[in-house]
Amino acid sequence: MRAIGRWLSVDKAGRAKDVATPMSAPTAIPTEHNEAINARILAVSEDSIQGFVRFPFQVIAEKSGLPLELVLERIRAMLDAGVIRRVRQTLLANKLAEGALVAWTIKDEWLDSAFEFMSKEDPFSGHVVVRSTDRNMTGGGYKLWTTLKVPQGESLEEHATALLRLTGAEEFVLMPAKGIFALGVGHVRRKTMEFGDRADTPAKMMNTAGAELSPAEWNVLLSLKGELTVDEICEDPWKGRAEQAGVDFETFCTIAEGLDKKQVIGRFSTFLEHVKPSATGVKVTKFNGLFHWRVPEGMQERAGGEVGRHHIMTHCYWREGGPRFGNVNIMGVVHGTDKAWMLEHKAAIDKHLADVGIPVLYDNVFWGGRSEIKPSEISPVVYREWHAKWAGKDRVAGIL
């Protein structure tokens, strides 16, 4: 006789069924992001769980209309396969650290080594992207773009100057955010958006003023922010983190909810590997476009709200680009697999700005190529240790 095992199967509507089947014929768990059940999960889990919630996977299950056990199984499998890059509670680091978008000029022959250093050796550089333009435009010579954060009280200029020395870069431009209008990912749910899809009201601007935390809050925050392992993809992922922080579960959650009220907690998210293809060659996105707009002085907050209300925008900021970038002041990112499709979305945003009476004085697009994305470190201790390690060294010394 053949042994019989039981496990959950799923019908076309996504309902779980207990199925008896021979144990000698197990079915592999689908891991591609575009498989129907996985897509339902990811449409919620990428960027729809805002703030701190005690049982995040239960919320994902409820919002996607799927059994919790199935959601946990699929997320574990996608994480294990590398389709999901990381699962974590994000922080609004602008409240905890000084931050800026940084554009770099560097010799072409040193571009790759600079990319490697910033992505692998500098924990304070988050997004590291090589960008290009379709035409000769203002700022087109800035080919390396990064996000940079340093602990409160430290200097962005100091750290960028150290990176300039260590990589051989020639110049950098710091563009701190003056306001934030959109901050999310949601690649799966954005694939089917219509041009011009937007919220009923303009996006509200989040300010970038820092928050003061107590030692107890820092203790919980540092335990909360780390990536979840496959084993932590479970019904109560914060139970182990509370033990790590040395507090009981209720205390951990109460402090985390307080941090949420202080607006230092972002979203709970499953981050897709959207740059590199999966093991079977499937890619989530192919391009990311950094869109720039210049609007009249005094209209930045209003324009940011109108751009940021468009659901296609994964990020939207008020940043002052200065004369090197045509004095643009609204910047945002769109991801997609087709440039023309992405530019249609930009055209819809441009039309909307015109319709609501906001003139666009200048605009451009920087296309992302090679990229690496990682969370930025915000620890003052790590910052001091990093600068001590690299003090007195430079590119000429052959560190790269």
* Overall pLDDT: 87
Radius of gyration: 22 Å
Instruction: Provide the spatial order of strands within the biggest beta sheet.
Output: 8-5-7-6-14-11-13-12-9
Number of helices: 12
Shape: globular
What is the distance, rounded to the nearest whole angstrom, between the alpha carbons of the first and last residues?
63 Å
User: Count of DSSP E strands?
Assistant: 14
Helix content: 25-40%
Task: Characterize the structure shown.
- By secondary structure, the protein is an alpha+beta fold.
- Helices cover 32% and strands 25% of the residues.
- It has 12 helices and 14 strands.
- The strands form 3 sheets. A 9-stranded antiparallel β-sheet has the order 8-5-7-6-14-11-13-12-9. A 3-stranded antiparallel β-sheet has the order 3-10-4. A two-stranded antiparallel sheet has the order 1-2.
- A hairpin with a 5-residue loop joins strand 1 and strand 2.
- Helix 2 (56-64) crosses helix 3 (68-81) and helix 7 (215-224) crosses helix 8.
- The protein starts with a strand and ends in a 10-residue tail after the last helix.
- Mean pLDDT is 87; it is low at 1-16 and 18-25.
